[in-house]
Structure formats: C-alpha cells, structure tokens
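>> Question from a student workshop board

For tomorrow's exercise we were told to take the sequence and the ligand below, predict the bound structure, and bring the output to class. My setup keeps failing. Could a helper post the expected result so I can at least see what it should look like? The ligand is protoporphyrin IX containing FE.
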Amino acid sequence: MPTAFRRCLSTATPIRLPLSTPAWISPAITKSLRKPVAFALLALPFIYLIWLVIGEVVAPGSRLGPDAGEAVVLYLGDWSMWLLLITLAITSVSRRLKRPQLISIRRMAGLFAFACVALHFLSYLTFLVTFDWPLIVEDLTDRRYITVGFAALLLLLPLALTSTRGWQRRLGKRWKRLHRLIYLIVLLGLVHVFWLTKDGYAQPMLMLAIFSLLMLERFLPRLRPGYQSAN
Ligand code: HEM
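>> Workshop helper replied:
Here is what the output should look like for this input. Compare the format with yours to find the bug.
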C-alpha cells in the first residue's frame, strides 16, 4: 500500500498513513462506508432511469424521445455493458493500486450488471416484442445479435446464483473457474453490440478498447517467464 510520512503537529513524530486517506478518516470508517458508497454509485444509472420514466409519464416524449420503449432498451443495454466492464475493472484496479479491499465491492458490481442485463431483456420483451412468443423465437433464431445477447444472459445466470459466500465455499476452486465465464460473457456482449450497431461505432469501439486493456493487464503477466498463478 502506498504510504507517506505526514508530520503530526502535536508530537512532531512522523506517522505512516495511506497516501489517499485523510488523517481524520479512520480505516474503520472507510471500511464501513465502502459498501454503501459503492451501492449508491452503482444505483445511480437506475435512479436516473426512474427519473426519466417519471418525466415521460408526466409529459410523454419529454425525456425519452419519440420511442420511449426503445430508448429504455438501449439505455439498459448500454449500462449492462458498462457495468460488466466496471466489474472486470475492479479486479485490475485493486491489483494495480494494491487495494485488495476493493474486491469486496466486485460482487456487488457483478450483481448490478446482472440486474441491468435482466431488465434490458425484460424491456426488450415488454416494448419491442410485447411478449409475442413466436416472434421472440423467430428473433432468437434469425437475428444473430439477439442469439448472442441471449447466450450472454444465460451464462450470467449461474454466476449470479453462485455469487454468495456459501456457494464460493461449496464450489472451492471450481467457483473461480466458473466465474471466469465473465470474460466470455463480456466478449459475447461486445459481439452483440457490434452486430446490432449500424452506424456510430464510437461507443462500441470505446467498450472494446477498455475490454482489451483489461485483458492485457490480466493476461500479459502470465506470458512472462517464471510467472506463478495465484490459484
Ligand atoms: C450481457 C448481455 C447483453 C449486453 C451487454 C447487451 C448490451 C446491449 C447494448 C450495449 C446495446 C446497444 C445500445 C445502443 O445502441 O446504445 C443493446 C441493444 C439491444 N439489445 Fe442487448 N445486451 C445484452 C443482452 C441482450 C438480450 C438477452 C437481448 C434480448 C434477447 C438483447 C436485445 C437487445 C436489443 C433488441 C437491442 C436494441 C437494438 C436496436 O433497437 O437497435 N440484448 N444491448
């Protein structure tokens, strides 16, 4: 952990404190605040969506444009991808900054990502195909971007169900192997996005760039001679 000497005025004795932690915040407070703060930040996209929808109900067309249903599907699709990338990034950031305590919020981020994908799927069922099952089956078989999106959702299910500590203990080493599916899920999510995008590739390219950087950070060290896996 990066540390710095800060002069304590009363005793003139140098004391060691983490660089980024103000002296008046004790580690106990940072620990107890970490999860509520992470929860509040991760909930922001959903709170903003509620605000958009309320505005839309009051004055149709004012906040979500002419096709509110499609706007909700796209909004939740975008945030599904960003939340999946945030979940992946937490591992890299905690390793690079040597802050293992950040790992405790990774599970929360993953569950938010899963909730967002599930809502994205539900909004697709509600607004775009209006629970017309033959049409949904046709979409799943004929539209390849729907097929891969659905595959990603199915693969996310076991990860969300086994995210508890109890399952982590029960599955042991297999838990880690199972949760490596997250790389495939994000990859399928990216394929889904590239296949459905017709113009304006800026956002998908940014998502791909972030994913590539995260993968390089994770797997490049393994190519070095003498690398020892932590597993
Ligand atoms: C991990 C899973 C998924 C991720 C990360 C994801 C992500 C996205 C993203 C980023 C968009 C584009 C939003 C934009 O253009 O601004 C999108 C659109 C869309 N997604 Fe997904 N999605 C996933 C799963 C699904 C599933 C399961 C379905 C339905 C079976 C689905 C159906 C759609 C549809 C219909 C659109 C809008 C296409 C359009 O109107 O142009 N997605 N999704």
